[in-house]
Amino acid sequence: MKRIYLDYAATTPTHPEVVKAMLPYFTDVFGNPSGIYSYGQEAKGAIEETRAQVAELIGARDEEIVFTSGGTGADNFAIKGVAFANDNKGDHVITSSIEHHAVIETCKFLQGKGFRVTYLPVDEYGLVDPQDVKKAITSKTILISVMHANNEMGAIEPIAEIGKIAKEGGIYLHTDAVQTVGHIPADVNEMGVDLLSISGHKLCGPKGVGALYIRKGTKLVPFMHGGDQERRRRAGTENVPGIVGLGQAAKIAQQETSEEAERLSSLRDKLIEGILERIDHTHLNGHPSRRLPNNVNVSVDFVEGESMILNLDLQGICTSTGSACSSSSLEPSHVLLAMGLSHEQAHGSLRLTLGKWTTVEEIEQVLDVLPGIVAKLRAMSPLLKSHG
Ligand code: PLP
């Protein structure tokens, strides 16, 4: 059975061109980039080339990019780095209630260290209101962190408007752009952000590598202490093959983003319309148009998300409910609850995320099998019996 992969928001297959670009850096060009001999300098050169590629993709300057161990590493660096470097100015951080755990848990950690954190609500579409950001600002606010787009239900947040508010208040703005960079335009100057997180494995690059954009002049403490790498902002011998892979992924994304976004949006809409039409008592989660081109998230009444996933998997179709990081937990998604869904609706959510190798035939295949799976599950559902 040929499997259909529809969980691109959790991770993407590594692009063959990315793998090809990485390979020499495991064997031929294996030198430590800190070495002054040619082996080292070649590796260093490849890192600097990637820095330029990543910078170009987001409209930054090369020296504003620091490589990290992925999106989680970038989020931790941004939030803790700014908080600890600016605690003489204030102790207040503003974020949203729909952030990825990499941001939420970092904020909770800061609360344990005496910082105060405001978790902003979202509307029924999952959008943060920039006016709520404005109202939450106090004289002690040092950082605002709001994600560019949500990984679960795909809403694209009004970062440029929040950027203006942050600038007026002289407050640093971080955005977790893990789900957007390489997929939709994410320009640091257009958005007015000071810090932006990127993860390699969400844009057909390798896992375990990412980057943090740090606007020149931003005050933050280093994430790791040790050697002089990354201009002393993140010590440790660089993951050269991973960084090269990220660079290649960024290069490919830059060439393909707009065409690919258009292709995926049309597949996404076909899937959404097909599900809502063919299965009654289904609801789209997230905004109908302010939405990532590859994200479909629906709640199917009277059915558990986990049961749908397992049944789809038996048909060779990989999907998810909530985020990958919380799929092992039975807690309903904090994102869907924040949008006002009931526990039952949140438990009945199904996320299908499309990507580079998704075809129209695959979408049709899902639309063929999903109604039957839902009907079968509903027939034995205690949720439907209690409703009836
Ligand atoms: N932020 C968002 C929005 C994500 O979707 C993810 C991954 O699911 C992360 C951060 C974490 O990135 P990484 O897996 O590279 O640590």
Concise structural overview:
The chain is of the alpha/beta class and 388 residues long. Helices cover 42% and strands 13% of the residues.
Describe this structure in words.
There is one protein chain. The protein has 2 domains: 4-11 and 257-387, Alpha-Beta Complex (Aspartate Aminotransferase, domain 1); 16-252, 3-Layer(aba) Sandwich (Aspartate Aminotransferase, domain 2), CATH 3.40.640.10. 42% of the residues lie in helices and 13% in strands. The chain has helices spanning 16-22, 38-58, 71-85, 101-112, 130-136, 159-169, 188-191, 240-278, 305-314, 334-338, 343-347, 360-379, 382-387, and strands at residues 4-5, 65-68, 92-96, 116-120, 141-145, 172-176, 195-199, 210-214, 282-284, 295-300, 317-318, 349-353. Helix 2 packs parallel to helix 8 (240-278). The chain binds pyridoxal-5'-phosphate. Pyridoxal-5'-phosphate binds next to helix 3.
List keywords for this structure.
binds pyridoxal-5'-phosphate; Aspartate Aminotransferase, domain 1; seven-stranded mixed β-sheet; three-stranded antiparallel β-sheet; 12 strands; alpha/beta; 13% strand; 2 domains
Major β-sheet, in short? 7 strands, mixed
Structural class by SSE content: alpha/beta
Number of helices, where a helix is a run of at least 4 consecutive DSSP H or I residues: 13
Low-confidence stretches: none
Counted beta strands? 12
Q: What is the CATH homologous superfamily assignment of the largest domain?
A: Type I PLP-dependent aspartate aminotransferase-like (Major domain)
Domain count: 2
Oligomeric state:
single chain
The Cα radius of gyration reads 21 Å
Bound molecule types: pyridoxal-5'-phosphate
Overall mean pLDDT stands at: 95
Percentage beta strand: 5-15%
Percentage of residues in helical conformation: 40-55%
End-to-end Cα distance, whole Å, is: 38 Å
CATH class of the largest domain: Alpha Beta
Q: What is the CATH-assigned architecture of the largest domain?
A: 3-Layer(aba) Sandwich
Write out the strand line-up for the largest beta sheet, numbering strands in chain order: 2-8-7-6-5-3-4
CATH T-level topology of the largest domain: Aspartate Aminotransferase, domain 2
Apparent shape: globular
